[in-house]
UniProtKB/TrEMBL annotation:
Chain ranges of the Amidohydrolase-related domain: 3-276
Protein name per the record: Amidohydrolase family protein
Domain of life: Bacteria
Family of this protein: Belongs to the metallo-dependent hydrolases superfamily.
Organism placement in taxonomy: Bacteria, Bacillati, Bacillota, Bacilli, Bacillales
């Protein structure tokens, strides 16, 4: 089973996305599942994971409604207010009635406090997640957040965590070595995973399979294929390419992997992490 473990949908008429403005370029419009479906059908993607694009109930409800009408949606990563544990517990109980609801994410890179994950009230929220068996997608943008992942995973060793977009590698920066060190440290907990996603936009214009290969090799050495998963990051990825280009480039960077490793990265890992039925 081929799984795209990271993509979004949003409807600007139904939900509010303050971060989306005319300055966002071509993604400043509604993107719905009906637009993505022909692309994934052509490529052969069996299931996708919808990931939250706003810290709001309306965004989560919209994704769940989308999943209800598109059987190829295998999982929804929504949102609850981790920093309000009582409300979070009630919301999780409600959302867990949906089999497709797999975990949550919070736009921590939008918080003024770079150590938001470590706040006592947020930690209470993580205890709820750990007990519930739900997952946490962390936008561990380097350098502010990636270094916190080992602390989070040490405190909540049973919580399944996945680092989105390999924490946005600092391509062409002197911080490359430190990013690699922090990524490797985060991988020391076997319940921490990572997504090979969003790399074309992180690199910027002129990206190619060759330009992405070094960071993917570092991730392979740190996590192994059994803890890496492919994500298109559609439609954000269209700012700097097409779905097909991201798909093909990712395959090209993994050309030397064996069949078992490719099966893991392009489906098996996501199925295990998000508990998506084959």
């Amino acid at each position: 089973m081929i799984i795209d473990a990271h993509q979004h949908v949003w409807n600007l008429d139904k939900c509010s996305y303050p971060w989306l403005t005319p300055d966002s370029g071509s993604i400043y419009r509604t993107f719905e599942a009906v637009e993505l479906e022909p692309v994934i059908r052509k490529i052969g993607v069996d299931k996708t994971v919808l990931v939250q694009a706003m810290d709001s109930y309306e965004d989560t409800d919209y994704m769940l409604a989308t999943a209800a009408t598109h059987t190829w949606v295998g999982g929804v990563v929504g949102w609850v207010p981790l920093d309000r544990p009582v409300e979070a517990a009630e919301s999780l109980e409600r959302y867990r009635q949906h089999e497709v609801f797999k975990g949550i994410r919070h736009l921590i890179h939008g918080e003024q406090d770079p150590r938001w994950l470590m706040r006592p009230e947020v930690q209470e929220g993580f205890r709820l997640l750990e007990r519930s068996g739900l997952t946490f997608d962390v936008i561990a943008v380097f350098p502010n957040h990636l270094g916190l992942v080992p602390l989070l995973s040490e405190k909540f060793p049973e919580l399944r965590i996945v680092i989105d977009h390999l924490a946005k590698p600092p391509f062409g920066s002197d911080d490359w070595g430190e990013w690699a060190r922090q990524l490797k440290q985060a991988a020391e907990n076997p319940n921490v995973f990572a997504k090979v996603s969003g790399l074309n936009t992180a690199f910027g214009p002129g990206w190619s399979a060759d330009s992405l290969r070094p960071c993917i090799e570092i991730a392979m050495n740190a996590f192994g294929a059994e803890r890496l998963m492919f994500g298109s990051d559609w439609p954000v990825a269209t700012l700097n390419g097409t779905y097909e280009e991201v798909w093909e480039a990712t395959h090209a960077t993994l050309a030397d992997c064996n069949a078992v490793e490719k099966e893991a990265i392009f489906g098996g890992t996501a199925a295990r992490f998000y508990r998506i039925s084959v």
